Structures are given as structure tokens and as C-alpha cells.
């Protein structure tokens, strides 16, 4: 079943990309939708049954074709498969210009396949290969199917995405190879269970530094975040959703699966620096969002701030911190998907999302869109009862009570600053709500913004319901990850 989970979107995606214009738009949409739904069904079965595969792949190098799921991977696998269904459904609402629709849909499926392979890989080298498989189709989505009115911006954003990711991947590869050759195995479970403990303290620090630096690009961690706003601003709506809800999670998942799990001593020595960078991201992202004019770019910078909470929680090094990071990962994936679908819909209706342009109030002209926007903003600022609250709250709590060996005074200061960053999130969310939801009175002869309906309303409704359910019942995720987190901590020396 796990082989089917990976092969289905990969095979259909490759066929759509290679067939290109030979496939009609209707057929491409149907095939993509069916493939995405089947992938979600298989993901549910794999998550419930714990399916795995382990076969020799490169025996001379000791690399195995090994995939499996545990409590850490399952929520991300389900999130990726669910987002895959939603972006496939969105193709019935909006297909960007710039190339073959079939190739566009194929790239979406290839990104999904690469992410699923990343979250299920149980071999360090295999993890790197899967991680890199996402690079090319995402670059195509940004540079070819991005903003049709600004080819130069598309090209620049695509090149910046590739450059940053390639440099980060190079560092990560060197770290993985150093780890594997030093420990004598590439099995991630064996490495977490103690195979890497034979490394000297300096070698652990070296490996942790390389892995953290490489993965920090994908998270992204300040100051390695500058590729993200341009990529989000120019990418098509479906590309922005995948980028925020899935690709950023690959970076944080990699931090948990590689440096945190395999070289915990080396990671602990880097944790104070990582905590500071996480807090800088929270404050910096919040301050930029207070003055940013482009709404899509604002949501991108808010992602930098939200991922700062994940980084801070991981740096705290406690069980609470790991749980907070894993939950915040899922919560941000759902919230960011909701906001980017909303912003994409508004941009299609208005022709732009410049916050300085006077527009009619959504609460009057488009009440469904207005309500969903307010809900997404409320979740983004961490309102209790919605998905964004638990990850941020527990991240601050974990920083206030870090694991033994962390500089307690420094982490308490980081916790206080992170709380200030949460207040900034409330400020910029209210600014957006005042500008768009409250808006201005509808002038005579001014066109009313069409409200959400049909497929678009269904997509937004699913995400809105998920935001509420995760906020009211966080145990859905926390109970699933608790066992794996406890096991991971038990492996630490």
C-alpha cells in the first residue's frame, strides 16, 4: 500500500507532464482529481495500518528502498494527501495561463508525490533524493505558471527558489554523508536508536550544523527566508498552497527526523542560536506584515513568523516543545492553505490585492468570503479555540521551561519576545480585516465582489472546518504524535 501511495501520484503526474497538450483540459482535470482522491484513500489506509516496505536498493552503498510511517509522519502524510485533493479540485475553478494545463496539473501531482516520499522515507539517502524530487516541478509552477502579467518577476522568483534550495540541499547532503559514513548506516531508525552515538562531540556538532543550515532554507529560518515572499507572490494559487502547506513542512520535518533525532547532542549545542533566529523571524515577519501592501506577500511573511514558533519549540528540546512544533506544523498547513485560497480568489476577482486600494466591504458584498477571511485571520493570530492557538501557546510554554542544559534565562527572554510577536500577529490581522472585511461603503455603479460558491466554497469550507476542529480537538494530532515523540526522547542519551 505504501508503494501505491507513492507510485500513484508520481505515475499520473509524469504522464500528464510528458503528454502535455495531447491531453484535453477536461481529461487532465478528471485524471488529476481521481488520482488525488485515490491517493488520499491510500494515505488513510497506510496511516491506519502502518504499512511499510524495506528492500535492497543500492546494496554496495548500504542504501535500502525503505518507506514507512510513524506517529510523526502520519499527520503530515494525511495533510499532504488532503491538500492534494483540494488543489486538484481548485483546478476546476482556476487554471493558470502560461503553458499546458495537463503539465500544470502533472507538476502538482509530482510535488505531492515527492512530499509523500519525503515524509515516509526511512533511509537518510532516500530522504535526500525524495526531498530533491520536489525542486523541479515546483520551479516549473513558479517560473512558468506564475503571475502572467510579470514574466521578469516569475523568472527571478524561480531562479531564487532554485538557488536557495540547491545551496541548502548541498549542505544537507554533506551533512547526511558525514553522518552516514561516521555511523556506518543510513537507516534513520537505527541512527535515532543510537547508531550515531559513536560520533565524537565535535563530529555531532559538525553534522548538526550542516543539517540545520541546509534544512533552515526550506523552513525557512531568518535570514535564509528571502526566497519565500517572491515565490509566494508570483506563484499560482495552487502552487502557493502547496508551497506553504506542504513544502515548508518538509524543512521542519527534516529538522525533527535528522539533527534532532540522530545527533541530539550536536543539535542541543546549536539550539540557543536556533531559538534566537526563530524569535527574530517571529518579530521580523510581524513587523513587515504591519506595513506590507500586497496581501499575498503579507501572508507569505506571516508564514515566516509562524514557522519561527516551530523553530523555537524545537530548540527548547523538551517533549512539550516537540509536540508543539509538530502540531504547529499541521495547524499552519491548514491555515495557510485557507488564506492562500482566499487571497487567490480575491486576486482573481479584483485583479490585484493591494491593501492601499479602496474596495467595497466584504462583509456586505461577499459575506461568505468575508466570514472565511476573518476566520483564517483569527486562526493565524492564535485565537483560542482555533487551530493556530495550541502550537503557539505550547511553543512559548516550552521556551519558558526548556530542557536541561539549555540556557534558561535566554529561553525565557525568547518566550517573552515570541509572545510579543503573537501580539504583532493580532495587529496585522486586524489591519487586514479593517481594510478588506470592513472596507468602504459600496459606491454607486461599483461592481460587487462575487461571493464564493460551488467548488470554491466547498474547498474553503473544508479548510475552515479543519481549522475549527483542530482548535477544539487538538488531541486529534497530539494523541497521534505522543507515542513517537516519547520514543524519540527515550532514545536520547
Automatic annotation (TrEMBL):
The NADH:quinone oxidoreductase/Mrp antiporter transmembrane domain, residue ranges: 121-401
Transmembrane segments: 29-50, 71-93, 99-117, 124-142, 162-184, 205-228, 270-291, 298-318, 324-348, 369-390, 410-430, 457-478
Subcellular location: Endomembrane system; Membrane
Pfam families, sorted: Proton_antipo_M
Keywords in alphabetical order: Membrane, Transmembrane, Transmembrane helix
Topology with respect to the bilayer: Multi-pass membrane protein
NCBIfam families attached to this UniProt entry: NDH_I_M (TIGR01972)
Similarity field: Belongs to the complex I subunit 4 family.
Protein's recorded name: NADH-quinone oxidoreductase subunit M
Organism lineage string: Bacteria, Bacillati, Actinomycetota, Actinomycetes, Micrococcales
